[in-house]
Amino acid sequence: MDQNIIIPLFGMLTGIIIPIAVFIWMYFDAKGKRETVLEISKHLDDSSKVEELLAIFEERKKEPLDYRRNGIITIFVGIGLYLLGFMAFGNILEGIGLLVIAIGVGTLIAGYLYPNTGKELTNAVEEYEKK
Q1: Rounded Cα gap, residues 37 and 111, in angstroms
Q2: What are the C-alpha distances in Å from 75 to residues 30, 103, 131?
Q3: How far apart are CA 64 and CA 115, in angstroms?
Q4: Distance, CA of 116 to CA of 128 (rounded, Å)
């Protein structure tokens, strides 16, 4: 093969291989959990215990995202990228770091503008009703 085509070919294949690999990995990860729940539920007589077991294996959080926490994390990732560009790689990585910092600041502001937890929503509603 010509050397000039190898890098673009690997670049295109990476865009295909990574999503397929993630899909396969998630399938086999969930398959083990499904088999475990099935095996345990065979030995349980009470249906409420089966529902409780399913709730334990549920991975999704019941609470909404905390944008303030995510904003702080994103800001510090941006600072790290900026410093890496400043120390080693140059202007391009510094610009990327500043972009990530700006995204983090926006996420942090969104966390304060839009209350997300039940307690914050209840407090906001109570304050509005007092007016």
Answers
A1: 37
A2: 33, 8, 36
A3: 10
A4: 16
pTM: 0.49
CA 24 remoteness from chain centre: 19
**Residue (of 45, 44, 111) closest to 73 by Cα position:** 111
Angle at alpha carbon of residue 126, lines to 124 and 131, rounded to 5°: 100
Taking only the tens of pLDDT, the chain with its 131 residues reads 567 888 888 888 888 898 999 999 888 887 777 777 777 777 777 777 777 767 766 655 556 677 888 999 999 999 999 999 999 888 888 999 999 999 999 999 988 887 666 666 677 777 777 76
Contact 100/81 with Cβ under 8 angstroms?
A: yes
H-state helical runs in the chain: 3-42, 47-57, 67-84, 91-113, 118-130
Residue corresponding to tokens 């560009």: 85
